[in-house]
Write a structure and sequence with these properties.
This protein is α+β, with helices and mostly antiparallel strands. The chain has three domains: 223 residues, FAD/NAD(P)-binding domain; 99 residues; 91 residues, Up-down Bundle (Methane Monooxygenase Hydroxylase, Chain G, domain 1), CATH 1.20.58. The protein has twelve helices and 25 strands. It starts with a strand and ends in a 16-residue tail after the last strand.
């Protein structure tokens, strides 16, 4: 099927979470034609996932606190974070929060900011904390998108990027090239759409959506990382995936507020001092003694029962906010017993970017949870939304600058209509394989088994027959998700140690020799390569932890 560009714009932003919306608004500020496309509805992705009340965001308290927050991020990152990117992140957060307030977003300010619950996950001190509530974000950002005439394409899947080289448009090749646009798929009309764009921003979220047990929206597909790999980009730190204790019954999946652990009774052995430590952070980490609580939950034959039955009076403000949301959202009382298991949540790594959000392919930018480098093996709580704001703004700004110096090139591609055998089964089995071998407890044996199973899924997707446009799009999408899963498993196998969010039961200690990021690239014939990165001069850190 011959496909030619039907739509032309200056900047195409793919993903309508906080990073994507921020990028689209900044790119449009200078009068450029901007399209905001998303796999789900506008205002989707992890930023607007309904499994929690909203987003916490933290920043340094003032300019004097900037350096301390940078040091804390590098320490918590355990040698995996890029110091330049960390500096860019920290230096921009307060400006971006001010921008939101200027637009009219109501930022929640704590009344009891000195309570221990407001110390961010994995951090050592209180920071500037603000709450971003979904309703206010949607209302204000929606008005701004309309005011700047940004074209919205909800329910459009990213199928591929399109490059051009020496006047030729088509697949990526060895010839130096740059971006011409992208191919999307409209799930409502079941048709492909070619978009000519001078610059493209990927803001598509992390890799948690590859799992069956996930604490993120169904539109977090984890496929854009594979698209980036196929166009010569690098992935960094992808083995560091946040795994969150999640309420599954009687209502779920919804996040379990970790601050409640010290006021809870569990159906597995958990000493009070470990519960107290576990209540200071949300996602699993391998580097603290309280990892034993998560390991007990992960090793349980079924989900673990938790009852929050020792809350003080008055309840800490942070927990009170959660309780109000939880009881309204689930019609349950916070003290009612619930069942927990771990779910894949947010990625600490992803597409490698420069300090302005640029990728290796000229014209391609990336922001938010689909990127890596500004976080490490663990991530301080509140910095996911900060990352979306800061690098969302940067990519929008620099994508606009790039677009101003380019001309649109018509997109023309051939798409071979195909239907993969067992298409639905492949999608379901992929999540089950990752759940079985790539959640909290990872081993060489289990990861090797997962690699073989995913290779079999890839082979099944290659066996195709002529199909409809919808079947073709779903086949291409599943191939991308399988490639992303292959990259994820390869990164987990390569890191033969336990560090931050990555735990190897067969290598349970941190190895100082592996205190550097791993870079994932796509090699010849579709092979996955994982190689250690060299730290820039001055970005090395020792192996001391801020949490002894």
């Amino acid at each position: 099927m011959k496909l030619s560009s039907e739509i032309s714009c200056d900047v195409l932003v793919v993903g309508s979470g906080l990073a994507g919306c921020t990028a689209a608004l900044e790119a449009s500020r200078v009068g450029l034609r901007v399209i905001l496309a998303s796999a789900g509805p506008t205002f989707s992705g992890s930023s607007f996932f309904g499994g929690t009340w909203g987003l916490g965001c933290i920043a340094a308290n003032d300019r004097e606190d900037d350096a301390d927050l940078v040091r804390s991020i590098l320490d918590v990152g355990r040698g995996m974070a890029d110091e330049e990117l960390v500096g860019e992140l920290v230096g921009g957060i307060r400006h971006r929060l001010h921008d939101l307030e200027e637009r009219g977003v109501c930022l929640r300010t704590p009344e009891a900011a000195a309570e221990r619950e407001y110390i961010p996950c994995f951090d050592r001190t209180h920071r500037l904390w603000r709450g971003l509530e979904h309703a206010s974000l949607k209302r204000v950002l929606g008005r701004a998108l309309d005011r700047f005439n940004i074209s919205l394409l909800p329910h459009h899947l990213l199928i591929d990027l399109v490059e051009y080289a020496q006047g030729r448009v088509g697949e990526a090749s060895g010839i130096p090239s740059q971006l011409a646009g992208a191919v999307l798929f409209d799930t409502r009309s079941s048709s492909f759409v070619a978009v000519s764009a001078r610059a493209v921003v990927l803001a598509t979220g992390g890799m948690g959506g590859l799992f069956r047990r996930r604490l993120c929206g169904s539109d977090c597909l984890g496929s854009a990382q594979a698209v980036a790999l196929a166009h010569g980009e690098k992935l960094v730190n992808i083995e560091f995936l946040q795994l969150m204790p999640t309420i599954v019954t009687p209502r779920g999946p919804v996040v379990f507020n970790e601050k409640c652990f010290r006021f809870s009774d569990l159906s597995v052995d958990a000493a009070d001092e470990l519960l107290d430590q576990r209540s200071t952070y949300g996602p699993f980490t391998s580097r603290l003694p309280s990892r034993e609580i998560d390991l007990a939950i992960a090793r349980a034959e079924s989900s673990v029962t938790v009852r929050v039955d020792r809350l003080p009076d008055p309840v800490p403000e942070f927990i009170g906010t959660y309780r109000s949301w939880y009881e309204d959202a689930t019609s349950l009382c916070i003290e009612d017993p619930v069942e927990l298991f771990h779910s894949a949540h947010a990625s600490n790594g992803g597409i490698a970017i420069g300090t302005n959000g640029s990728c290796a392919l000229p014209g391609l930018f990336a922001a938010g949870e689909c990127t890596g480098g500004m976080h490490g093996a663990d991530r301080i709580g509140g910095l996911a939304s900060a990352n979306a704001l800061v690098f969302g703004w940067k990519t929008g700004h620099y994508a606009a600058i790039h677009a101003l110096g380019e001309v649109n090139v018509p997109v023309e591609v051939d798409i071979e209509l195909a239907k993969a055998s067992e298409l639905e089964a492949v999608g379901s089995e992929l999540g089950s394989v990752l759940d079985a071998h790539a959640l909290v407890i990872r081993t060489e044996e289990g990861l090797a088994q997962a690699e073989r199973a995913i290779a079999d899924l890839a082979s099944r997707l290659e066996r195709t027959e002529p199909g409809s446009q919808k079947e073709t799009a779903m086949t291409l999408l599943q191939r991308q998700r399988v490639l992303s899963a292959r990259a994820l498993i390869s990164a987990m196998r390569a890191r033969t140690e336990s560090r931050g969010a990555h735990f190897r039961a067969d290598h349970p200690a941190e190895d100082p020799a592996q205190a550097r990021p791993n870079i994932v690239t796509l090699g010849a014939c579709g092979s996955i390569r994982v190689e250690p990165a060299e730290h820039p001069e001055g970005s090395r850190m020792d192996n001391r932890s801020i949490n002894p």
